[in-house]
Amino acid sequence: MATLNLNGNDVSLPDDPRTTLLDFLHQHLSLFGTKKGCDHGQCGACTVLVDGERVNACLVFAFQLEDCEVTTIEGIGQSDNLHPLQQAFIERDAFQCGYCTSGQICSGVSLLQELRNGDPSAVSYNSKVSLKEDISERMSGNLCRCGAYPNIVDAITDVIALERQ
Amino acid sequence: MTTPNSKIVGSAVNRIDGVQKVTGQARYAAEQMSEHKPLVGWIVASDTAVGKIISLETGLAEQSEGVHAVVTYKNAGPMKPFSNPEDEGRFTQSRAVLNEPYIRHFGAPVALVIADTLEQARYAASLVDYTIEGQTPELLTHFEGATEVPDSLDGGFEPDANSGNKPDNNDVKTSVNSTYTTPSQISAAMEPHATVAEFKNGKLEVFTSVQIIAPAVQALAVTLEMDPKDIVVQSPFIGGGFGSKLGLHYDATLACIGARYVERAVKVVLSRRQVFYNTPHRGHSTQQMTLSANSDGALVSIVHRSAMPKAKGYEFAEATGAGARVTYQSQYIESTHRVKDVDLPLIDSTRSPGDAIGSLAFESAIDELAHEAGVDPLTFRLNNLPVVHPMKGTPFTSHNLGECLRQGAQQFKWQHKPQPSNGKVIGHGVASAMRMNIFVESSAQVEIDEQGKVTVCTDMTDIGTGTYTILAQIAADALQTSVNNVTVQLGDSRYPASCGSGGSFGAASTGSAVKRACEALIDSIQSQLPAELSNAKLYVEEGKIKAAKPNAEDSATPFLITDYIPTNTFPISAIGKVSEDDTSDDEQYSCGAHFAEVEVDTYTGEVRLLRQYGMFSAGQILNIKTASSQIKGGMVWGAGYALTEGIHHHEDSASFVNPDFGEYHIAVNRDIAEMSLDFLEEPDYAASPVGAKGIGELGITGAGAAIANAIFDATKVRVRDFPITMDKIISG
């Protein structure tokens, strides 16, 4: 039976080929940490990691992910074992309503890896662009209507500083 | 850890619901009742704005795999029609849908397909065939088209007001005569409106995303012709509201009538595009202004005339002239509002109704006048501040606009502009913010158990504003315990009715109710103590309720409350209530000054924000961290309103050209640059018992105008049609 690995556990893929990864998480697994904000890849609220890279869960069908490793917010950290970025989001108040937050954090976790890898962004070629601006650019696929952007950048900057200590 | 007499209110306590939100454990409306999987409803939307359904074929859809029902006007069951003349209150009036074969606006539901899965419902919806005999929709397309005087304006303002005498021509040295337009805008909260509903033994249980709970119960009772006692509405987490969730919308009605029809739980989640049509938006505005100053640079005349659309059958009109009436002293002030009934989706509150778009226009026009008069725009504003309400002559409970402008300019370094790089120009802009403070009826219950654990219950909501946290802070201070020792339960219609979230009134009103409840709780405990101890000061420490008798020799040796009150008396609870009587009749305003530094590319017209700064005065700040976040959020909205946001109307079909995040551009992370703010704190106990005033709408009021004025300062191009996109700057 075709499976994908979700947060460390194998789960069977759905029969309906129309089912997106996002709807699969919600409808089949009752796993609601990943949010649906637009269902069209325009807002980033459903960002998850697929084999370590960030992906909009609304833009992939579940059946495309056979044997892939998927990490959702539930796999990033737990209440008693928060990821440093989750803790930084709390300290920096990098969210208000919380609806885009799962996606922001998954995106941010992936961003940290992209920086470690030296992956380019649309502005990173320019030596005049600051780290904060680069983070802003890299986080621009994740909309936040509460307007937590400055605090989100601060939270990610804190974790980078922690890593570079 | 308890430190009696510590001041928790105001401090930067982390959100108490923070862990739930960063781990994805906070449950929003669509995620409820997952244990027995509600059926899924999908809307078949009208492709015509106004008309009558003359044919409706649902057979194919009904036979489609997984489909349980197709609900239409033919089988939806009894509902009280929308907009009956006797209906009162826009959040309690009927929200009927699918109750008649008539369509009132583009995108309105024609049918609800209910199936086991979303995929099945959505596919089957494509099989529903309908024909609508359409009529030409009415829209507001020009200023003169708005001729109706609205019955009332949001915030209780009179539609028309004037004061003073028109100045003689000799007294007028400088005048500007400008017309500004702002586009239709939408709240676009990240969580689409969603409802899960189920009837259990004749009772209706509803999870929905709504800012104010009690009227939502009433609206469902009215719509479905039920007894409100048989309805429970819960909204524990709300993924943003910004006015769009003040009342219930079609997702709620459809889930309820769907659940009534299939006799099972039904979930209806709006798609992003459905949010644009099935929930409210802000109408577009045209604001004509004539502003005049005398030779001393003093304002002598302010005339502001506003024209906006109003949705048919729905009483909402915003006071775009509110800022023009209160921000500056002027010999003569005149402000009028006209509307036109249109065939558009609901038009209702969007963050800071009136002032968000009123300030865009008015503060830009004030800037024009300052430049015409040859006076620095900051100085011009400072020179024209009112001492009392400029039209009514009544005093303000507190008024710190001048200090916000003065100290804000210092912090921002108003006089210091950086050198632009090649091909760029840099500008500074300033704008004033005056946002009326509203204090309303609210109530809450506070309970304490024998271990001193405190629980606050109210049907108040937290839409991201930090309500959970500030109510815990208020209770912790009042009962002398720690925030960790307080549990806050919100968003449930079985709890005492609060004001809900909206109009920036939530924190001050419900916060005051919680404070009252704590005081009543202390009174209740003290009254059960022996007379000589009845004025002992309570506190909670190490899992015990203790007290110390003030001014007594033995005050150093506190006693246990449970030594005097039997443990089976606990938990002890009390209700706290506040009403409009608890606030002053004087003018109440939160004040602020916004500053912006922008860089504009002279070849492309591209605007980049370099800095946004604000100085605000809003009474007692309840939590400096969450308050700052909320203000920043407003400033981000200001950037969007100045530069990117706007619904484009397709006039022939009365539809929207850009109803999604791909085309309706809210600000993204990279649009925002350095942003900072400060508060001039001054508890205003005339405004509310906790001394707080509203902040949710203060942050956006004036934020966009500061950016627009900075663009003018940089380019000398005055764009009067928002948003200020690059094409308008280049052609200006």
The helix-and-strand class of chain A reads alpha+beta
The CATH topology assignment of the largest domain in chain A is DNA polymerase, domain 1
At the first level of CATH, what is the class of the largest domain in chain B?
Answer: Alpha Beta
The count of β-strands of chain B is 28
Overall morphology of chain B: globular
Give me the count of strands of chain A.
5
**Major sheet size, sense and barrel closure of chain A:** 5 strands, mixed
Q: Which sequence of strands runs across the widest sheet of chain A? A: 2-1-5-3-4
Strand content of chain A: 5-15%
Which stretches of chain B are low in confidence, meaning pLDDT under 50 for 5 or more residues running? 1-5
- The radius of gyration computed from the alpha-carbon positions of chain B, rounded to a whole number of angstroms, is 27 Å
CATH superfamily of the largest domain in chain B: Aldehyde oxidase/xanthine dehydrogenase, molybdopterin binding domain
Please describe the topology of this protein.
The complex is a heterodimer of chains A (165) and B (732).
Chain A: E1 3-6, E2 9-12, H1 21-28, E3 47-50, E4 53-56, E5 69-71, H2 73-76, H3 84-91, H4 101-117, H5 131-138, H6 149-164
Parallel strand pairs in A: 1-5
Antiparallel strand pairs in A: 1-2, 3-4, 3-5
Chain B: H1 18-22, E1 39-45, E2 50-57, H2 59-63, E3 67-71, E4 102-103, E5 109-115, H3 118-125, E6 129-135, E7 161-164, E8 174-182, E9 194-200, E10 203-208, H4 213-224, E11 231-234, H5 250-262, E12 266-269, H6 272-278, E13 285-293, E14 299-311, H7 322-326, E15 332-342, H8 355-373, H9 377-383, H10 401-412, E16 424-436, E17 442-448, E18 454-457, H11 467-478, E19 486-489, H12 506-527, E20 537-541, E21 544-548, E22 559-560, E23 572-578, E24 589-601, E25 607-617, H13 624-643, E26 649-650, E27 655-656, E28 674-679, H14 703-715, H15 726-730
Parallel strand pairs in B: 1-12, 10-11, 14-15, 18-19, 25-28
Antiparallel strand pairs in B: 1-5, 2-4, 2-6, 3-5, 7-15, 8-13, 9-10, 9-12, 13-14, 16-24, 17-18, 17-23, 20-21, 21-22, 24-25, 26-27
Protein name (chain B): Xanthine dehydrogenase family protein molybdopterin-binding subunit
Biased composition (Polar residues) (chain B): 162-175
InterPro entries (chain B): Ald_Oxase/Xan_DH_a/b (IPR000674), Ald_Oxase/Xan_DH_a/b_sf (IPR036856), Ald_Oxase/xanthine_DH-like (IPR016208), AldOxase/xan_DH_MoCoBD1 (IPR008274), AldOxase/xan_DH_MoCoBD2 (IPR046867), AldOxase/xan_DH_Mopterin-bd_sf (IPR037165)
